[in-house]
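Trying the structure run again after the queue cleared.
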Amino acid sequence: MAQGNSRDPRKEQQWRRWIQQWQHSGLSVRAFCGRHDLAEPSFYAWRRQLQQRQAPARFVPVRVVPDEEPAAAGSVEVVVAGGRRVRVAPGFDPATLRQLLAVLEEVPPC
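Done. Tokens:
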């Protein structure tokens, strides 16, 4: 069952039957494989493969929204706790920015 090989529909159908029989048997995987002379690693690999093939594709809705304000060229945006954002224009004072960030990080929003 190497990846990239074409599917063998007969082999796939046989594994589907074995897995369905196992589900209704009440046996552990080890006991079922022993009874049917199946390799446990192959059983687990086929079970995983068939579950992935049956899984429906899931889509998540996405809404694209424009930036609230276009950022100035060369500016930096810092996102702090709580999702608050600080936009810093070129030529900012580093000491002032450090003080502002310290205050924003220590005080919870109202």
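Residues 76-106 form one domain. Worth checking whether this holds up in the mutant runs.
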